[in-house]
TrEMBL record:
<feature type="transmembrane region" description="Helical">
    <location>
        <begin position="6"/>
        <end position="33"/>
    </location>
</feature>
<dbReference type="Pfam" id="PF09678">
    <property type="entry name" value="Caa3_CtaG"/>
</dbReference>
<feature type="transmembrane region" description="Helical">
    <location>
        <begin position="127"/>
        <end position="146"/>
    </location>
</feature>
<dbReference type="GO" id="GO:0005886">
    <property type="term" value="C:plasma membrane"/>
</dbReference>
<keyword id="KW-0812">Transmembrane</keyword>
<feature type="transmembrane region" description="Helical">
    <location>
        <begin position="189"/>
        <end position="209"/>
    </location>
</feature>
<keyword id="KW-1003">Cell membrane</keyword>
<dbReference type="InterPro" id="IPR019108">
    <property type="entry name" value="Caa3_assmbl_CtaG-rel"/>
</dbReference>
<feature type="transmembrane region" description="Helical">
    <location>
        <begin position="53"/>
        <end position="71"/>
    </location>
</feature>
<feature type="transmembrane region" description="Helical">
    <location>
        <begin position="91"/>
        <end position="115"/>
    </location>
</feature>
<feature type="transmembrane region" description="Helical">
    <location>
        <begin position="235"/>
        <end position="256"/>
    </location>
</feature>
<keyword id="KW-0472">Membrane</keyword>
<protein>
    <recommendedName>
        <fullName>Cytochrome c oxidase assembly protein</fullName>
    </recommendedName>
</protein>
<keyword id="KW-1133">Transmembrane helix</keyword>
<feature type="transmembrane region" description="Helical">
    <location>
        <begin position="161"/>
        <end position="182"/>
    </location>
</feature>
Amino acid sequence: MTAQQFWMLGINLLWHPLVLIESLILATVYFWLVVGSGRHYFAHSQPVTKQQWLSFLAGIGVFYLAFGSPIDYLANHLLFSAYMLQNILEMIVMTPLFLSSIPAWVIEPVAARVVNKPFYQKVSKPFVRALAFNVVFVAFHLPPVFNQTLLHPWLHVVEHFVFFLLAIFLWMPILSPTALIARLRPAAQVVYIFFAGNLLMPLIILLLFTQEPFYRFYLQVPRVFSIPILADQQLGLIIMLVGMLVPFFSLGVYAYSRYDNALLYR
């Protein structure tokens, strides 16, 4: 498939007007809930900050970019690299932006009912969070499972929904909007980020240097933009490696600087 053929697929396939409508609906509900009359349903509501609603708008923009732009068609049908880019946008960019936009008084009525449950206290430990995220992510990318998700659109939707929930679960110890789910201290954040960010690295590096296509699905689809299948696989793994390494490393440096300053000025 040439670039010209790809761009001729049309607006419905490449730009998903329905996803745009969904984005606008989500934005309307958010502003009604945290700025408009919806605040009256929460006893302890307070005005949201400019940074919060800007984070939400940025998150909505990333949501549409990942699932409403041509990235989504490429990810679902043609390119492993686009699929990996979509995952990074969803889990490493969009989810933290959404978490940063949620006022504490929105999430606390739900959190108060969950945090004291014995099951939650067991699974919410930082080690379990990081391990669960990486184990489930790897499981979804085993060839038999991965090929099925691309062949069945409904399963692909389920996969992204699971990734979104897992990403929330992963980011909570760092970006929790409520004291009911306490953030880790800066020193613990450094360890947590290092652990979570490095669990996938051996697998990514191993696949990066393989000389055979890992997923049979891409053997039966047209090659778009003249990208060879093995180069596409390697590009996808590089996107995953850089997309996780850079944000996690940056957060680790930031958390360490806070920890270092806390020791210096204590």
